[in-house]
Amino acid sequence: MPFFRRADYQSDTTQFIQKLKASRPELESEQRQGRALLWDHKIDRDSLKEFSAARVPQKPYVYQNGS
Predict the structure, then answer these.
(1) What is the pTM of this model?
(2) Element (H or E) spanning 14, and its range?
(3) Domain ranges (residues) in the chain
(4) Dihedral angle at the C-alpha atoms of 27, 29, 32, 38, nearest 10 degrees?
């Protein structure tokens, strides 16, 4: 252990987040619920294959007129 050890540095952002979590303990569970709502879904592989197979190829230059 160094003789002249400094206290561990914490940024203002880290301090803010720690205070926020201390004042609102339910915040983390709310974040998990939000993530589950938007991201944590089971993927239906059969439907994914059907979507990929039904995809229509795009023309090389989409802004070109048909003339």
Answers:
(1) 0.49
(2) helix 12-23
(3) 12-53
(4) -80
Rounded Cα distance, 35 and 41, in Å: 10
Q: What is the 3-state secondary structure (H, E, C) of 16-53?
A: HHHHHHHHCCCHHHHHHHHHHHHCCCCCCHHHHHHHHH
**Three-state DSSP class for residue 15:** helix
Which has more pLDDT, 64 or 23? Answer: 23
Q: What is the pLDDT of residues 5-49, one digit of tens each?
A: 778 899 999 999 999 999 999 999 999 999 988 888 888 899 999
Distances in Å between the Cα of 45 and the Cα atoms of 2, 38, 51 are: 56, 18, 10
